Amino acid sequence: MLDLGLAGLTRDPMRLPSDTLTWPPYSTPMHLSAPVTFYDEAHPETSLLTIEQNTMSLYDYHGMTIRPLSSKVDAAGVLHAAYQVTNQTGARFSGRWMLIGDHADRTFANTDKPLELGPAGSRTATATIEVTAPVTKSELTQRVAFAVMSLSDPVVLGITARSFKYPYA
Hints:
Layout: E1 8-10, E2 30-31, E3 36-40, E4 47-51, E5 55-56, E6 64-73, E7 78-87, E8 93-101, E9 112-117, E10 126-134, E11 141-150, E12 156-165
């Protein structure tokens, strides 16, 4: 939906329960517990799609490293963050990076783009991603997560979570 310029919101979370007692539940299938409808962000009463079934399994994957380089929130309430992403595999990587969190305004946010990396050891195996996004001034402490996802395999390659405080509240 991002490539079409659509942003969808859900009113309820996607719940993928697991029967395993260990965390993370590697290789244990988790099934969607109830359908989840996504609504058009610009027109909240318009349904974009409903996910009826979904199964997810987590796997320990070491093909990508994400290293936080910097992060700060300026006086205007804009988060500025930088991450270094490195492909650890011998194959080219085609995917997307995204910043997941509660952003107050997406009009000038830079929180999602394609990511192309060369194989490990090549001069194009590493990229520095700079992120800018307005934060919610009414919340003193907020969390965002930087994620990298493959476009060819159904796998999240890495998520790095970060908490910060709004400095001028």
